[in-house]
């Protein structure tokens, strides 16, 4: 459990987990989109197929109707077919004419291609004279049966250009129990000497049933009149009559003449494709259960699932590979940091790749190099410090011996009343006492200046008042600032020996103390012979030999080095000089109290 928890919190574990989450989300979205797209595509194909199929059936119904109407109109408009001049019972010639007219009507039926579906084609006048043909057996009382129907006058009153068909029961002897679509048109008497009459054509509903069955779509298909009466239907699903009536009524009320819709009923959800004829009012529609239409959905779901798991496996593989790719340089970084912690600061070029981790590697290599340089420098500084302390110890003389000797000389001078010797010995005694206390301790600026005054007294007596010293401190508080002991004496000593003495005449040494922000600046300036520019750098680097008769034996390079050791590389001495005019040495140290 701990290993799992550790792995989860590791960088590699988090990369793999984050990548897997991203892959799962992308794969899930991809699978959903794929499923939705495939499902929508499947629906679109099904709807297009149903629409084309139902419109094809509707067109065939329209063609059949137009063919039947043409037969009726041909009969109503043919002037040779004049029933009023015929007496079917008396004259042979009249019977012959009737037979010829009958044959002509039979030919109309035959050449139409729908002869077997024409139950009855009858031409009659108002006197009851008629001729007829059709698939139903004729009878002498067919005229009377037709006239007795409730729908005859309604069909006769309809307009030819807007003939909304009806479905009725066949009233004739040969077609009892069958449904048919009647078409009745009056005879055209314009400009003709014809009796008033009409032409009747009865289309068997079997025409529509056979056409629907011929489609063989495997779905429920229904044809109804504009009033909702069923002409024909092919049922593959058990649908309640009430549901069919509601669906029929809903489709008849739609303003569009064709389309495919999705409808939900008590028996399920359906795709319904429909087409309406504006001329006849016939509505033809097909119903397909959505659950059966989309039985490919299971296949789509399986494909989407396969796609999801393939993406998941690829994501897992890519996550592992990418985590290894990232983990390797991180392991190298970790190993390098451990080496640095163990004291090995060697550079590792393998860390310096071209990516972001490589930038970190470059930083670690740079850091290790800097640490190594710093350690070497610290070792070197400590070595220099020890050497300097050894030199100072070597230069020391037993202070008690010197103090006792100087004290004896001072008393002899007092007895002899020699004030100059007393002053010089007193200054030297004070100077040696301060030197004996050590060189590297920090003292206040006031104490450093007092120590410097003792040294100046000795040197002025030595050089017969050849120079004067001016001291100016800008702020009273600076007297309490702390400074490394014996910093100013070597600077004044340099001004005397290298500036004033070679000049051979009186000079002035100016000491100026001021504060610049957090830095204490002390300048020691003389108006002596100056220093050539090429020698200045050599003096600070210790390449110029110092005189052996200096008081402390501490030259300018040692002062500069001591300051840098105590305060840092940014502090120390700087020299500015102009040959024949002046030399100015500046000390920069941080202000401390």
From TrEMBL:
Domain HAMP: 324-376
Predominant location category: membrane
Highest taxon of source: Bacteria
Classification via InterPro entries: Bact_2-comp_sensor_kinase, HAMP_dom, HATPase_C_sf, HATPase_dom, His_kinase_dom, Sig_transdc_His_kin-like_C, Sig_transdc_His_kin_internal
TM spans (from-to): 15-35, 299-321
PROSITE patterns: HAMP (PS50885), HIS_KIN (PS50109)
Coiled coil start-end: 364-398
Keyword Signal attached: no
GO terms for MF: phosphorelay sensor kinase activity
CDD domains linked: HAMP
Enzyme class, spelled out: transferase
Residue ranges constituting the Histidine kinase domain according to the UniProt record: 488-593
Catalytic reaction equation(s): ATP + protein L-histidine = ADP + protein N-phospho-L-histidine
The entry's keywords: Coiled coil, Kinase, Membrane, Phosphoprotein, Transferase, Transmembrane, Transmembrane helix, Two-component regulatory system
Recorded GO CC terms: membrane
Enzyme Commission (EC) number: 2.7.13.3
Compartment(s) where it occurs, according to its Swiss-Prot or TrEMBL record: Membrane
Name of the molecule in the record: histidine kinase
Species of provenance: Blautia hansenii (Ruminococcus hansenii)
């Amino acid at each position: 459990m701990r290993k799992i928890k550790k792995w989860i919190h590791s960088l590699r574990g988090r990369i793999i987990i984050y990548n897997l989450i991203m892959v799962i989300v992308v794969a899930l979205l991809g699978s959903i989109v794929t499923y939705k797209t495939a499902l929508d595509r499947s629906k679109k194909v099904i709807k297009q197929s149903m629409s084309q199929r139902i419109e094809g059936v509707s067109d065939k119904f329209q063609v059949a109707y137009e063919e039947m109407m043409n037969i009726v109109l041909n009969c109503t408009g043919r002037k040779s077919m004049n029933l009023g001049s015929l007496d079917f019972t008396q004259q042979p010639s009249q019977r012959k004419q009737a037979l010829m007219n009958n044959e002509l009507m039979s030919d109309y039926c035959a050449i139409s291609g729908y002869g077997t579906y024409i139950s009855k084609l009858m031409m009659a006048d108002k006197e009851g004279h008629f001729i007829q043909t059709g698939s139903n057996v004729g009878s002498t009382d067919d005229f009377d049966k037709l006239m007795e129907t409730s729908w005859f006058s309604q069909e006769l009153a309809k307009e030819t250009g807007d003939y909304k068909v009806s479905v009725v029961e066949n009233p004739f002897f040969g077609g009892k129990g069958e449904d048919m679509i009647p078409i009745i048109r009056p005879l055209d008497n314009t400009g003709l000497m014809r009796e008033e009459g009409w032409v009747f054509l009865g289309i068997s509903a079997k025409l529509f049933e056979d056409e629907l069955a011929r489609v063989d779509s495997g779905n429920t298909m229904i044809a109804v009149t504009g009033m909702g009466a069923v002409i024909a239907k092919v049922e593959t699903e058990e649908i309640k009559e009430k549901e069919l009536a509601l669906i029929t009524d809903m489709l008849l009320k739609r303003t569009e003449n064709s389309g495919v819709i999705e409808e939900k009923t008590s028996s399920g959800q359906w795709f319904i494709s429909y087409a309406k004829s504006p001329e006849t009012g016939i509505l033809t529609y097909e119903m397909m259960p959505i659950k059966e239409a989309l039985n490919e959905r299971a296949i789509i779901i399986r494909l989407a699932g396969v796609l999801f798991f393939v993406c998941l496996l690829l994501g897992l593989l890519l996550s592992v590979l990418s985590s290894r790719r990232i983990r390797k340089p991180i392991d190298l970084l970790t190993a390098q940091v451990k080496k640095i912690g163990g004291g090995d600061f060697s550079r590792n070029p393998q860390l310096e790749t071209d990516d972001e981790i490589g930038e970190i590697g470059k930083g670690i290599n740079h850091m290790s190099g800097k640490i190594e340089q710093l350690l070497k420098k610290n070792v070197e500084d400590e070595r220099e410090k020890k050497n300097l302390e050894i030199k100072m110890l070597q230069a020391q003389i037993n202070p008690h011996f010197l103090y006792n000797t100087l004290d004896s000389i001072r008393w002899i001078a007092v007895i002899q009343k020699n004030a100059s010797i007393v002053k010089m010995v007193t200054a030297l005694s004070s100077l040696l006492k301060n030197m004996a206390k050590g060189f590297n301790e920090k003292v206040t600026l006031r104490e450093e200046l007092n120590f410097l005054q003792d040294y100046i007294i000795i040197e002025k007596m030595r050089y017969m008042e050849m120079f004067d010293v001016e001291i100016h401190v800008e702020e009273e508080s600076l007297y309490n600032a702390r400074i490394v002991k014996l910093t100013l004496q070597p600077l004044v000593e340099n001004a005397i020996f290298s500036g004033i003495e070679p000049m051979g005449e009186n000079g002035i040494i100016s000491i100026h103390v001021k504060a610049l922000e957090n830095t204490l600046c002390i300048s020691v300036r003389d108006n002596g012979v100056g220093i050539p520019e090429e020698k200045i750098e050599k003096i600070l680097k210790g390449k110029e030999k110092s005189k052996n008769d200096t008081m402390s034996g501490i030259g300018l390079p040692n002062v500069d080095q001591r300051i840098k050791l105590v305060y840092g590389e940014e502090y120390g001495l700087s020299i500015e000089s102009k040959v024949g005019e002046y030399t100015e040495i500046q000390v920069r140290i941080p202000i401390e109290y």
